[in-house]
Amino acid sequence: MPDYSRLRNILLLTSDSSFEYHIRQLLQKSIFSSIDDTIATSCAQGRRILEKQCFDLCMIDAPLNDELGFEFSCEYLGRRITQVIFVAEEKICEQLLERSVHMGIYLQPKPLTRVSLFSAMAVAQAAFSNTRDLHLKNTDLLRKIDALRIIDRAKCLLMQYLGMSEADAHRYIEKQAMNLRISKKTIAEHILKTYDN
User: Fold this and answer.
1) Taking the CA of residue 10 as centre, how many other CA atoms within 13 Å lie in the half-sphere pointing to its CB?
2) Where in the chain are the domains?
3) Are 38 and 66 in contact (CB under 8 A)?
4) Which residue from 13, 61, 109, 188 has the fewest beta carbons nearer than 10 Å?
């Protein structure tokens, strides 16, 4: 089973081939070596890539040839990109500080050293793991709510068609699930197929 709590892929936006080489070299010799990377040299190219694929992390080496890249990160963060590390000159980082805090974008001033890169990656990894955990919990909660909705509908049908009380309908579903060793939701779905025309 894949480890969904780990960063799996990164979209690197840079128009500087030496920055691209530097990042790739650092990642290859680190705990992040298994991350797949995709390179875009402009925001326009990044947008085309994001039409087809989502990324766990986007690192932007600002400015790019066609725009700064900050609006790009705001546009896709939370939709097609889970986390963003925005790398820029310190004066640009200063100007974007309040917006980055509001948006949840990690600013990293240049020059990007090994320590600063891995510190930023560690923060992105922690945030990514928390986001994934919340997503999994939310998905599980939605499944449980759906099961309860189906069971409640089945109880209503048993009450309507077989004259059971709510407590009797509940016990009936529980007993059937226990006897047949299947979930209450599955029993409820059978009841819906039988009585819900």
Assistant:
1) 23
2) 9-112, 140-195
3) no
4) 109
